Amino acid sequence: MGGFTGQTNFSVSQGVRMMFYVLHPNETSYKTIEEVPDYVDKATVYFTMMLVMEMILSWAWKGRPLRINDGLTSLSAGVMSRLPDVFFRGVEVTTYIYVWHHYRMAELPWDSPWTWWLTFIGVDFAYYWFHRMAHEVNIIWAGHQTHHSSEDYNLTTALRQSFLQKYFSWMFYWPMALFIPPSVFAVHLQFNLLYQFWIHTEVYNGLKHCNIQHGLFSTGESTRHSLKMLM
């Protein structure tokens, strides 16, 4: 996501679990923001593998491939949305760090599982309200509507992100900066984003509810799903 320089060697198991938000606190807790890996960058190979799998399954299931023109449009939008992060730390993390340094009221321990789980719920909760407002407030919708402009619903659609969207989402995470360390927040911000990728598909029948969600707004599904898989 830009600005994350921590180095971590992932096993295949960890890489796959990263995509489904089922890594454990002891695998993903860091003391400083500089130690946090760029999980989104490391997920590129898994993005590619899942896209190829979806293309094959779509051909076998529907008898037709995914539309190349629509997929390329989605991929292009995704690349454009990421360009600022190549040179600068993301606005969500930058503003979060500012609030943390100047206004924090308490400091939860970065290595506590309780802090990890609280952040897990907090990021998902904040994203829910951002996504809901993105569908109800015109100016925020202007920065989000690109994501809903595709006529198809597949994994490339998850990458169809607006260049402007992140400039509206940062404010929803500010309350967490009053007590949750930036390093913990940065981990969950990335995992929450990665989780959004694989639910954008019609190939898996069990994800039909996500297609409905795409016409409405996020329902905090990542929290419920991850808790179920970890317990």
UniProtKB/TrEMBL annotation:
Keywords: Lipid metabolism, Membrane, Oxidoreductase, Transmembrane, Transmembrane helix. Residues 117-205 form the Fatty acid hydroxylase domain. Pfam families: FA_hydroxylase. It is found in: Endomembrane system. GO terms for molecular function: glyceryl-ether monooxygenase activity; iron ion binding. GO terms for biological process: lipid biosynthetic process; membrane lipid metabolic process. GO terms for cellular component: endoplasmic reticulum; membrane. It is a multi-pass membrane protein. The chain crosses the membrane at residues 113-130, 170-191. The keyword Disulfide bond does not apply. InterPro entries: Fatty_acid_hydroxylase, Sterol_desaturase/TMEM195. The keyword Lipid metabolism applies. Glyceryl-ether monooxygenase that cleaves the O-alkyl bond of ether lipids. Ether lipids are essential components of brain membranes. This is Transmembrane protein 195. It comes from Eleutherodactylus coqui.
